[in-house]
Amino acid sequence: MSLVAYEDSDSETETGKTEAPDASSRQTNQLSSSVSCVQRFAPGSTKSAYEMHPAGGSGRSGWSRVCEDPPEHHARDNNIDLAPPYCQRVYSGHAALSVPYKNYEQASSSSANSGSGISQKRTHKDSTTAIKGIRPYIPKRLRQENSNKPEKEESDQRGSSDCDVKLNVSGEHTLRKISELIKPYLGSKYKVTEVPKSLIFYMSKHSGPVNEIQWCPVREQSHMLLSASMDKTVKVWDAVDTGCCLKTYTCHSCAVRAARWSSCGRRILSGGFDSMLHLTDVETGKQILSSKTEFRISALKFHPTESNVFVCGGFSPEVKAWDLRTSKVLRVYKAAVQQTLDILFLPEGREFLTSTDAVSRDSADRTIIAWDFQSAAKISNQIFHERYTCPSLTLHPKESVFVAQTNGNYMALFSAQRPYRINKKKRYEGHKVEGFAVGCEFSPDGTLLVTGSSDGKVFFYNYHTSRIIRTLSAHKEACVSAIFHPVLPSLLATCDWAGEIKIWQ
Fold first, then answer.
1. Phi/psi zone of residue 455: left (φ > 0), alpha (ψ -120 to 50 degrees), beta?
2. Which residues neighbour 11 within 8 Å (Cβ) at sequence distance 6 or greater?
3. For tag attachment on the chain, is the N or C end more exposed, with fewer CB atoms within 10 Å?
4. Are 460 and 500 in contact (CB under 8 A)?
């Protein structure tokens, strides 16, 4: 995909709206599958690889075999050349056509492996071989090994899982794979971020509001997206290649408010309103750490340099630092507040910030508190003086500044160095918060600031001018999070209060 350099302009006329696909077509797609893929087609020979043909002589109604498998599989089986890897699904500048993929669970139900409990999707080649009745020769030794393998896998799965894990895509390799779309970008530096315009995937497996989403921090496995929901579940998605849910973890008995990837990408730390902390192995679902806290959890963050240390906060005047190696509390940070809304580590992890609900009619001190991580001492509690709470904080990837989302329907810019002064000349306003925990984030190159909005839109701001570049009508309910992919340029994930997750480009 060719990248167009971002053109900075102060003109008010550059603000435009990009509407999401029609709601009626989205509901229709949702009935047949929880994942809808919106493809964009280029003219010429590439179009024939994706073209829909009437079933005709196949004896089926609807679409032919070409539509049942992803375009990449069909092109591979028929020796068709596709565009470069990252352009296989999206071609900008052409009309959009909604093509619902069949759900992986539905497509593989007839070929489920009863021995291992893992459903496997039949490929185009497998179905052709089955029709012709041709079976390749398998040596006797391999047949004996394969006959004993399912029982062993089933027993291993029962013995290692302390958490209810539902596997939705066949094979553990889907978690450890490297996406073909990501490979071309691993060896190069991240370039300019563009504003996304097209819907790639629509994912609606959650039955409750989605509180938080995060891309896997390991670049090679960054096709995986983590989500935490009020429906008591944590899910891992393949949000780059298929848009399918890879695994579902139901370790919590109440709403999951926060979930974070570990730095190695093999573990998930989650906390919720059941006051439980869980550290879960991504592949096996085994509980590495389970601990009961004295309060409901609303914020979790790993230390940026010490991978075994994390900070936890919630409905309590205390914030605690934990060590995973000992499963014990390292330090306690005490403040005269009722709830911690968000936690943000500053560069190198020597200091961190907490945003709280300590706002009264006469004072706004303690709204943002700076802490010394080692000594647990307060550095400052007079950072923000407006009488608004700050539901989320985010750090600029290159400059020593951070942004606080406020319930005053604007984002404030601060210095990330003592004394953490506010920049009174810049204010990012125009979106709506209205009591929701709406998140905000910088693009990986630091040129854009993106935020959700309580009216379902996504707002893109120019970081330097603080002007709105564009608004994206992404959801019907409040959009609580919007995050850019760390490797693929201009790929954006959003989630809302209705339980929907969408991927845009």
1. alpha
2. none
3. N
4. no
Long-range contacts from 164-168, C-beta under 8 angstroms, 24+ separation: 164/249, 164/250, 164/251, 164/285, 165/247, 165/248, 165/249, 165/250, 165/284, 165/285, 166/247, 166/248, 166/250, 167/117, 167/118, 167/246, 167/247, 168/104, 168/105, 168/244, 168/245, 168/246, 168/247, 168/248
User: Half-sphere exposure (CA, 13 Å, Cβ side) for 314?
Assistant: 21
DSSP element (H, E) containing 352: strand 351-356
Would you say 312 and 299 are in contact if contact means Cβ atoms under 8 Å apart? yes
Please state, in angstroms and rounded to a whole number, the distance separating the CA atoms of residues 242 and 111: 19
Length of the chain counted residue by residue: 505
At 37, list the tokens: 């893929």
| Rounded (to 5) percent helix, strand, coil in the chain | 15, 35, 50
Mean pLDDT of 276-305: 94
Burial class (CB in 10 A: 0-12, 13-18, 19+), 31: exposed
User: Which is more confidently placed, 21 or 251?
Assistant: 251
DSSP helix/strand/coil, 319: strand
Task: Kindly state the helix (H) or strand (E) to which residue 167 belongs, with its residue range.
Answer: strand 165-167
Q: Are 388 and 359 in contact (CB under 8 A)?
A: yes
pLDDT tens for each residue of 436-462: 999 999 999 999 999 999 999 999 999
Q: What is the 3-state secondary structure (H, E, C) of 385-408?
A: CCCCCCCEEEECCCCCEEEEEECC
- Identify the pLDDT of residue 335: 86
Q: Which residues of 46-60 are buried (b: 16+ CB within 10 A; e: fewer)?
A: beebbeeeeeeeeee
What whole-number distance in Å separates Cα of residue 445 and Cα of residue 193? 7
Lookup result for tokens 């899910």 = 235
Cα dihedral 330/334/337/343 (nearest 10): -40
Q: 345 near 325, Cβ under 8 Å? A: no
Q: How would you class 87 by CB atoms within 10 Å of its CB: exposed for 0-12, middle for 13-18, buried for 19 or more?
A: middle
Q: In the numeric block, which tokens belong to residue 180?
A: 């073909």
Up-side HSE of residue 380: CA atoms within 13 Å toward CB? Answer: 14
